[in-house]
Amino acid sequence: MGRKWNNIKEKKAAKDQNTSRVYSKFALEIYVAAKQGEPDPESNMALKFVLERAKTYNVPRNIIDRAIDKAKGGGEESYNELRYEGFGPNGSMVIVDTLTNNVNRTASEVRAAFGKNGGNMGVSGSVAYMFDATAVFAFEGKNSDEVLEVLMEADLDVRDILEEEETVIVYAEPDQFHAVQTALKGAGVEEFSVAELTMLAQNEVELPGDAQEQFEKLIDALEDCDDVQRVYHNVDLGE
């Protein structure tokens, strides 16, 4: 899974370059999670997960508090979680997760992003079967043997543990997210550079120069859509 980690780093680095866009997307996700359950992360696991992710992106506390306060105030806005699937240049595969209060607008924007950048939307299930939902953690301060021992003591059998330079990466089942994170925190891991539920491609592809350039434009166009929260793909973007 080492090559897949490169894609996660690439996506995170790209998002970090536009913090205002990242913050606005997190604000919406926090609002929706808080509104759908209790506005307390200790009793709302969906909200707790979003807040843990927000920490890895250094989302300011005032943005988090404002989104939760908005949910407490009983905001009337209603959002749907929708997933779109499609194909990019050279048959590359893309999954797009959205939060929207206007389904027609979102579908139109996502379809246009595909169409203008060498891709096309597929039907539900046309791409997702080639990806695995995965919990991913990345952190420093321990080696892979220490992490394995910690997880074994917690009776957690994860998919894989890798060590790249000084960073340890743990891949686990999605339903293990909170258990793995709790075990790692209990063992002294104070900060995660990545703590995500993501979709990892079972097989990655490399694109020739022109196709990769067009593919990157497609990903940029999708991530520029206000309603798009996350984009997953199967292209190896390299280091």
Automatic annotation (TrEMBL):
Q: Which UniProt keywords apply?
A: Cytoplasm, DNA-binding, Transcription, Transcription regulation
The reply on keyword Transcription is yes
Domain called TACO1/YebC-like second and third: residue spans: 79-235
State the organism's lineage.
Bacteria, Bacillati, Bacillota, Bacilli, Bacillales
The subcellular location is:
Cytoplasm
Give the family this protein belongs to, as stated in its UniProt record.
Belongs to the TACO1 family. YeeN subfamily.
Gene3D superfamilies the UniProt entry points to: 1.10.10.200, 3.30.70.980
The species is: Sutcliffiella horikoshii
Instruction: Check the record and name the PANTHER family matching this protein.
Output: TRANSLATIONAL ACTIVATOR OF CYTOCHROME C OXIDASE 1 (PTHR12532:SF0)
Q: Where is the TACO1/YebC-like N-terminal domain?
A: 3-74
Q: What is this protein called?
A: Probable transcriptional regulatory protein B4U37_02605
Give the GO molecular function terms.
DNA binding
Classification via Pfam families: TACO1_YebC_N, Transcrip_reg
InterPro entries in the record: Integrase-like_N, TACO1_YebC-like_2nd/3rd_dom, TACO1_YebC_N, Transcrip_reg_TACO1-like, Transcrip_reg_TACO1-like_dom3, Transcrip_reg_TACO1_YeeN, YebC-like
